Amino acid sequence: MFRRRLRLSAAAGAGLLIAATAATLGTPPTVAAPVDDPVVQVTIDSFGPVAPTPGEDVLIKGTVRNTSTETLDAPQALACIDRTHRLSTAAEIAAVSAEQDVAMNDRNSCSRMTTPDTGVFQQYDAPLAPNASLQFSLKVPWNEWRISHQTGVYVVGVVVRGTPQGEERLTVGRARTLMPVIGDQPLTRMVNTALIIPLQHRPTQLGGKRFTNESLAESMAPNGRLGRLLALGNGRKVTWLVDPATLDEARRIVKDGYDVGAGGTPTPGAGRVVVDAWLKAFDASRASGNQVVLLPYGDPDIAGLLDAGDQLKELVYDARRTTERFSLPPGFTNGLWLEGGAAASRYLGPASRGFPGASDDDLNLVGSGSWPAVERAGLTTTSPVYDIRTPEAPWDTVRTVVADSALTAGGPDPDTGENPIQVRQRFAAETALIAASGKGSASVVAVPPRGWDSTGRATAALAGDLSLRWINATSVKQVVAGTPRPPVIKAPAAPRSNAIMSSDQLDGVKQLDQATTTFKDLLTNPAEDLPEAMPQALLRSASISWRGFPDEAKRFAAVELGSVNLQLSKVHLVNNAVNGEHREIKVNLAGSKGTFPLTITNDTDWSVRVGIVVSPTNRTDLRIEPQQTRILAPKQKFTPRINASAEQNGLIRASAQVITGSGRPVGKSQELLIQASQYGSVGWILVGAACALLFGTSFVRIYRRIRTERRHPSPAPSSEPAVDEQATPDALHPEPLDPPSADAPAGGSLREGVGSKDG
Fold it and tell me: Which residues pair with 445 in a beta bridge?
């Protein structure tokens, strides 16, 4: 006994330390339950009737599993009730303590019922060994509850006791639930209830027929999550909340079949028949009158994208525009689903109205759990439709449906949020109090929270409660139409950052967005030529449905990025490979100004508009005339002449970059080696010196000839008979010089040649 008490004290001290730490950090403390060995796990598997009336017996069945390391002798299962508190409001239900800071043996809020021979407790002869289980079935007569005949809600449950070896009998486990009691006085009104069932799955299509895995088809099987959820629409009025990307992937599987595998050789998919049957059942449910609300395409992380800024916030509007154009005849409601911090006005305002096609008929859905409990209490039960103030947006308010998060919260004990029985009892208790609390119309909307109910069984329990006699099943559209003038309320407050995606996932989305935008800008006619799969894959990469699958999310974005980059790499500069490797492009630039060719090839299947930008990397004297962009047809090449100039000769390193029509770079730049061969200032000095030498030599030569003629003048003319004119030399026109004769001495100088009449 001393050992057990010592453990309890140490555990209680640890719990206080955890609470103090959480208070310092400004977060609600989650206090761990004190350790009180041994402890068993108690689960309520069935409870009926859901809402008993005075005089009805209640049958409780469940399971006990010994999770301790000690054997328990003489175990007992006993029904219990907190008869001191009849809960009459939703606030009182929410205030029921989970008693997590109280040792199991000291929890006495649910009093044990021990009347013999009444079925309120069950004794077991065999001991309960570690990891062993036993079943209990307790039938509690109405009189044993010892409660009034008034309508209200009570906390009831099952307590398990046992005797550890060498110690006295202890309470070793407990499970509680809510029991609504419909009293002798009739309920005062019906509760119009719209149950919204989300139909969505994380993205699996990698492009074309390639899918990452079989998870979508497996989920759409009759025993899969989407299969179970869709079956809830059979014979019931529900509202479907659907990600159109999930429908697109399912349609693709049915149309052409599919292959499975993220890498290597894919294998043929095996779920085509199953997916086809699911789509047909979905169409049949729509035809029966069940409303369909389509989420933004891919169901993106609205808060994360808007917080990321200009580059990614446009994806929110792209997702909404894509849904607006989605094909789902005869029609659907365009919707938005926000929870928690993502419901703040800085997200709700832009995401609800900031896209072409936005309408007052769009459904903006927010869970009431987004508000603190104090503010939540001000929400009415008359109608869940409100005008929420959005001061950050150009419009003052946004028409919003606030779903009651309490309807899906489960029982008073922790970790029961997805237990079907606990969910069913909580829903029945909350709506029963609404039905008994006033007159006139009352409407509620129930939607399971995101990431809730991985099997679909808890949602099935909700759908089953639509048959309760005070419930009038309806659609969200009818609820909204019944509230012509909703009250105005403030949006919930939110932390600075509310992204669901991790930073790594956001980085992957940014890279894919940049590549996709570049390819779109490259196309001559992007409205018609851009493959539909590219923007769809981008929106899928930002899906909030990736929560819980971070590795798959990163692989998906990486594969899609590689696909876009493959198309971009088909528009590039021609560069002949040397030994299979691409090298720098070598060009020559002769003269102070010159041209050199570069060739762009377009190996895609679309016309593109391209240009080239050349930039020096090691010098600043290279000047390149801007190039005009040009349309390049599919499978064609274009060789523009690049006009360049350099002030100095030598080797210039530069980069050539293919660009889109708006100047976005396409792929990697190509290295250029430019050999500039032209005259600089030193060259002009040499040219001047050469000219001076040439003209100086000519002047010396003429001067020497004149001087020689003056020293040796020609004889004066005589009166003798004239001789032949050809034999008489003219001083002003001397005869041309003849080449040296064979008799002339070798190595005659220039001076001798000039002074000789014969030479």
Answer: 194
Beta strands in 331-396 (DSSP E): 333-338, 363-367, 385-389
CA distances from 560 to 297, 508, 533, 573 (A): 17, 10, 10, 24
* pTM assigned to the model: 0.81
pLDDT digits (tens, 9 = 90+) for 327-353: 999 999 999 999 999 999 999 999 998
pLDDT in tens, 636-671: 999 988 888 887 777 888 889 999 999 999 988 888
Say if residues 187 and 167 touch (Cβ distance below 8 Å).
no
Q: Which of 216, 274, 217, 257 is nearest to 540 (CA)?
A: 216
Q: For 374-424, how does the pLDDT look when each residue is reduced to its tens digit (9 = 90+)?
A: 888 678 778 999 999 999 888 899 999 999 999 999 989 988 888 999 999
Residue entry with tokens 């009998």: 169
Helix axis angle, 345-353 to 310-324, nearest 10°: 50
Distance CA 304, CA 323 (A): 19
Q: Nearest Cα to 159, choosing from 146, 169, 147?
A: 169
* pLDDT tens-place string over residues 102-155: 888 888 889 999 888 888 999 999 999 999 999 999 999 999 999 999 999 999
β-strands 385-389, 397-403: how paired? antiparallel
DSSP string, 220-289: HSTTSHHHHHHHTTTTS--EEEE-HHHHHHHHHHHHH--EE-SSSS-EE-S-HHHHHHHHHHHHHHHHTT
Tokens of 180: 């609504």
CB 686: neighbour CB atoms within 10 A? 10
Other Cβ atoms closer than 10 A to 185: 10
Gap between the Cα atoms of 415 and 422, Å rounded: 10
Indicate whether 729 pLDDT > 90: no
Peptide bond into 38 cis (omega under 30): yes
Q: How many CA atoms lie within 13 A of 89 on its CB side?
A: 6
Residue entry with tokens 């301790």:
68
Look at the block and give the residue holding tokens 């998906």.
556
Tokens of residue 159, six digits: 């307590």
How many CA atoms are closer than 13 Å to the CA of 223, on its beta-carbon side? 0
Omega of the bond leading into 736 within 30 degrees of 0 (cis)? no
Structure tokens at 592: 């102070």
Distance separating alpha carbons of residues 86 and 179, to the nearest angstrom? 10
Question: Tokens at residue 315, please?
Answer: 């994806």
C-beta atoms surrounding 307 within 10 Å: 18
The CA distance from 383 to 334, in Å, is: 21
Contact 625, 644 (CB under 8 A): yes
> Which of 502, 478, 540 has the alpha carbon at shortest distance from 300?
540
Q: What phi, psi does 186 have (nearest 5°)?
A: -65, 150
326's tokens: 């989605």
**DSSP-derived secondary structure for 590-619:** ESSEEEEE--EEE-SSS-EEEEEEEEESS-
- Judged on CB neighbours under 10 Å (0-12, 13-18, 19+), 566 is exposed
CA distance 196 to 449: 10
